[in-house]
Write a structure and sequence with these properties.
Layout: H1 15-21, H2 24-27, H3 31-47, H4 53-71, H5 84-96, H6 109-145, E1 150-155, E2 158-164, H7 165-190, E3 192-193, H8 209-215, E4 220-221, H9 225-230, H10 233-259, E5 267-268, H11 287-311, H12 324-348, E6 350-351, H13 353-361, H14 367-376, H15 381-398, H16 407-413, H17 421-424, H18 427-432, H19 442-458
Parallel strand pairs: 3-4
Antiparallel strand pairs: 1-2, 5-6
Helix pairs in contact: 3-4, 3-6, 3-8, 4-5, 6-7, 6-12, 6-19, 7-10, 7-19, 10-11, 10-12, 11-12, 14-15
The structure holds arginine.
Pfam families: ASL_C2, Lyase_1
Protein name: Argininosuccinate lyase
Pathway: Amino-acid biosynthesis; L-arginine biosynthesis; L-arginine from L-ornithine and carbamoyl phosphate: step 3/3
Amino acid sequence: MTKLWGGRFTKTAEEWVDAFGASIGFDQKLVDEDIEGSLAHVTMLGKCKILPDDEVDLIKGGLLTLREKAKAGQLEFSVQNEDIHLNLEKFLIDEIGPVGGKLHTGRSRNDQVATDMHLYLRNQTKEIMTAVKKLQEALVKQASEHVETMIPGYTHLQRAQPVSFAHHLLAYFWMLERDYGRLEDSQKRLNISPLGAGALAGTTFPIDRHYSAELLGFEGIYENSIDAVSDRDFIIEFLASSSTLMMHLSRLCEELILWSSQEFQFIEIDDAFATGSSIMPQKKNPDMAELIRGKTGRVYGNLFSLLTTLKGLPLAYNKDMQEDKEGMFDTVETVKGSLLIFAGMIETMSVRHETMEKAVNQDFSNATELADYLATKGMPFRQAHEVVGKLVLVAIQKGVFLLDLPFTDYVEASQLFEEDIFDVLQPKNVVARRNSAGGTGFEQVKIALLKAEELLNKA
Ligand code: ARG
């Protein structure tokens, strides 16, 4: 089969060589974007009188037919035509005759492919942002039901201070809010048009890049034609934002996995998001959470793969850059899938109040409270820390918790203690009193919930 670029060749590559170089196997995902870009390009060629109107109409008609055929799955892509761009150009020529060959006037596959990917990521970023909101909604919904549910807060995975379960869930809401912000901000850099940069140097035709950019809904154009076709930083930015987002999801996965274990029993994942074991009849595994945690690795991998691909490339386009696509597609699917599963998992999980309640009543996570108590009465905090440390030791030796120690032990440790410490030590009071801005005090959590709901309603 002759190639669209075959003029200067005396020999054709063997099929297996073609197959190795072709990207059609994966870049056919860009079929809509490629047609959209071509429609804008040819409309611009008409407006600038580079092609006569009748030819522009013919080409547009052909492209629209191809769009319908693509939708109906009637396009048979071929490896000989290498990639989505050449495949579509070939189909167009088959459809409307040699005039189809005029579509490529004043453009190159290099600005074409960059345009396609800007369009693709612009759409996908929006979809991902919507999915982030969905998950945030699920978190807020669970949180609003658990303002007064307490859970041990951990540092070093050791019980630290009790917190409201809603507060813990909302921590993830705010992480996701920043992830959303990163994706939103990336739109500024995504929404500029490389189209018309040509192979690298611009073109001799009197094109109007601003016009084609406007037709495609871009806010501006790349200022430099070499930059426009050489960089893939817009994809790197997407992969980096996705990596951070997945890192956040993965941490919550880890917690869900721990919390649903026999050891914690803080939550139960709904049957719809868990699986059983083929051998152990009693098992219920938090597979989805594990899988999302696992998939985080592949998103990081996609980021590093593209960074590495680009790091040594001289300007401008190099075929290496064809390697930008699979990782991008894979990341889009992975992130979208993970977010949707996650929202369902959070919405449907059940929270086991009793075990959480039991947990916060059977530990030393109220010890800070005692130190604060002494400090409020004038004892330097450092000294108070020491006094309470000793009391904890006494309790451990007696095999009890702080609330179970007799008052005499307290008075012995410090004359500043009064009977009200037994109230102060109640987990409910411990949490309620942390009423500093952004803290876990119930009043603060209610304020945070209102803020979160307001943000969701705004989006
Ligand atoms: N399939 C190519 C890619 O994805 C399109 C650009 C090809 N340009 C070229 N000069 N070979 O990068």
